[in-house]
Amino acid sequence: MTRLEEVQAKLAMVREFMSDAGLDAVALNTRANFAWLTGGGMNHVGLDGATGVGCIVVTRDTQSILTNNIESGRIEDEETGELPFEIHYTQWDEEDPAEMLGTVAGGTIGADAGYAGVATSVADGIARLRWSLMPPEIERYRALGEISAATIAATCYEIEPGMTEHQIAGLLMGKAMGAGCQPVVALIAADERALKYRHPISTDAELDSHVMVVLGCTKWGLGVYSTRMVSFGEPSAEMRDKHAACCTVDACLNLETVPGVAVAEVFSRGVATYAAGGYPEEWRLHHQGGATGYAAREYKGTAECAETVIENQAFAWNPSITGTKSEDTIIATSNGPEYLTTAEGWPTLAVEYEGVTVQRMDILVR
Q: Are residues 197 and 86 part of one domain?
């Protein structure tokens, strides 16, 4: 499937959605939907916003991108290429989204982020179209996973005691950017901070004996997430036990993430595995992750989650037990989870879940 064929198939999906919803057009302005519908294009400038500088408008028989004169050339040259989108732009200081939208669409319009004041939200409906990945998306995801796995591994092999968490985060993010990815999460917890915080934003604290390194990075709009543990010297028996228990929960969540299975059921089995390992309350201290893809979390796995796992859907489960965490990104298939972010050469830990043995990422001892 070529990129053009991918985009044409997605445009057909959007138009079917519009027909079912009684809409004449949709305006898609979020970074996630722009990347999805263009087969990996980017519509953003800043890294801190959910929306971008180009809005895709799909009607029953046309597809346009609305932007300004600053962005139009780059979007056409570098993001959409030969794809069948007609670009409309105005002078940057005369930009009027409502007026621009009116030139390409009319009737009943829905939007994913309120573009031009459109009140009818299609955010949830369009998001569902993204969840089952097409073959070209899976190929891009595999490439991103390899880059991310190599990035976090290289960082963990280079860090040294005495470095600050900020310095470690800088090294990690620099490697990701240097490999052509955009880091969106870089959490570093050295020593005692790993025992205190589940979301350890980096600080000036200096690494002494052990560290948790968390990386989330994106490319082509897709996101991968992983966590690694590093110890300078042999970890304590308690930390070894905690990490093994955490990896067992991770194995449970990944192996249970099978197309057709209710996400709430996957979650409940994970909670039961925490208890079986001797840590019945740890799941309450941090969310367990969930579906990913074009959004960091398309939704979180909970006991109340009403979703069902879909074939070729991406997940990033992240169970944690105080001081340690196990996390990689997978694609759920009928043949079992396909791990995207594991790296060759990293030490592994064989853990068993209901008769199945899987290799999970162990603590790296340096």
A: no
Residues 220 and 111 in one domain: no
15, with CB counted inside 10 A (0-12, 13-18, 19+), is middle
* Same structural domain, 107 and 146: no
Give the Cα separation of 85 and 141 in Å (integer): 24
Q: What is the pLDDT of residues 75-128, one digit of tens each?
A: 999 999 889 999 999 999 999 999 999 999 999 999 999 999 999 999 999 999
CB atoms within 10 A of CB 232: 16
Looking at residue 46, its pLDDT comes to 84
Q: Are residues 168 and 52 in the same domain?
A: no
The range of the structural domain enclosing residue 225 comes to 135-365
User: Each residue of 200-224: b (16+ CB within 10 Å) or e?
Assistant: bebeebebeebbbbbbbbbbbbbbb
What's the rounded Cα separation, in Å, for the pair 90 and 321? 53
Same domain, 24 and 119: yes
Torsion of CA 321, 325, 331, 336, to 10 degrees: -60
- Has residue 47 got a pLDDT over 90? no
The Cα angle at residue 177 between residues 290 and 171, in degrees rounded to 5: 90
